[in-house]
Known about the structure:
ABC transporter involved in vitamin B12 uptake, BtuC, 332 residues, 13 helices
Amino acid sequence: MDRTERNNRRKIMFFAVPLLLIAVSLYGLAYGSVSISLKEIWAVFTSGGSPVHEKIIMNLRLPRVLVGLLTGACLAASGALLQGVMKNPLADPGIIGVSAGGGLAAVICMIIFPEYSYLLPVMAFLGSFLTSLVIYFLAWDQGSSPLKIILAGVAVNALLGAVMNGIMVVYSDRVQAVLPWLAGGLSGRSWHHFEYMAPYALGGLILCVFAIKPANLLLLGDDSAKLLGQRVELQRFLIILLSSFLAGVAVSVAGLIGFVGLVVPHAVRLITGEDYRFLLPFSILGGASLVVFADTIARSWFDPLELPVGILLAALGAPFFLYLLKKRGIKP
C-alpha cells in the first residue's frame, strides 16, 4: 500500500468511523424486545415522547449503550497499545492474562467475600494492575522483550484460570451468581455503572494521547528508540500499565469480554497502517461500535433469550484469531 492510498483510506475512515458509531448507537437504542422507531427516539430526546418509550430508552437502553461504548473503547485501546509495545498483532488483554487477573479478583470478591461486592470494580482493576506487574517482572532479564512478556502472560493466564476454576469448585453453591459476569455482558447495566465507570474510562482514554508518540517510537525497535533518546523500558512499562488500567476498567463493569482488543486494532491496522496517530483513535471508536453492535444483536436476535455479548464476541473473535495465525503466519 503506497502513501497516497493509505492517506485516502485514512480520510475515508475519518468520516466513516464516527458515522458508524452514531448508527450503531441508534441501533442500540431502537432494537430489543420492544422496537422503537427513530422518530420516536427523536421525540423522547426533544419533545417528550411516549412515557413508555421514554422509560425504556432513558432508564434501560441509553445507559447500557453508553457503558457498551466505554467498554469497547477501553478494550480496543488496551489491545492496540499492547500490540504496539509488544510488536505483536496477536497481543490482547484477554490472551496474555491481564483480563484474567481482573476476573480472578472479581470472582474472589463475589464468591468468597460477597459482603464486599460494592468493591467489585476496584478489585477488578487492582487484579488487572497487579497481574500486569507480575507479567512484566517475570519477563524481566536485563530488559523485557516482547516475546518474554507474551510467554509470561500466557503462563500467568493459564495459572489464573486454574485458580479461578478451583475457587468455583470449592464454592460451587455460589457459582450461579458469578457465571453471567464470567461470560461477559451488559445486561442490567444502569446509570450507576456508567457514572462509576465514566471518570476512569475517560481519564484512561485521555492518557492514551500521551502514549501515541512513545508507541510510534517503540515500533522502530528498542535500539533505534534508544538512539533517539527514549527510555525504552520505562515507556514500555508505563504503556503496559495504561493498557492494564483500561482493561481493568472494562472488566470491572462488563465482565470478561474478549477479542475486542485483538480484532479491532488489527482490522484498523490493515486499513490505516501502523501510525498510532490514526490507529489508536480509530481503534477506540471501532471498539466502541463493535461492542454496542454485538450487544444489540445478542439481546434482540435471540429473543426471548438474551445472549451474553461476551459469548457472541468470542464466537466471532476466535475464528479471526485462527485466521491471523494461519493466513498471515504471524509469530510472536
